[in-house]
Amino acid sequence: MPMWAGRFSKDIDERVNDFNSSIKFDARMYRHDIKGSIAHATMLGECGIIDKSESEVIIDGLKGILDDIDNGVLEFDPNAEDIHMFVEAELTKRVGDAGKRLHTARSRNDQVALDIRMYLLDEIKEIREITVKLIHTITDMAKEHLETVMPGYTHLQRAQPITFAHHLMAYANMLLRDIGRLDDTYKRMNQMPLGSGALAGTTYNIDRQRVCELLGFDGITQNSLDGVSDRDFCIELASAISILMMHLSRFSEEIILWCSWEFKFVELDDAYATGSSIMPQKKNPDVTELIRGKTARVYGDLNNLLSMMKNLPLAYNKDMQEDKEAIFDAVDTVKLCINTFIPMLSTMTVIKENMRNAAAKGFINATDCADYLVKKGMPFRDAYKITGTLVARCIELGVTLETLPISEYKKLSDSFDEEVYKAISLDTCVMQRKSAGGPAPESVKAQIEYVLRELDK
Question: Does the domain spanning 109-201+225-357 belong to CATH 3.30.9.100?
Answer without folding.
Answer: no
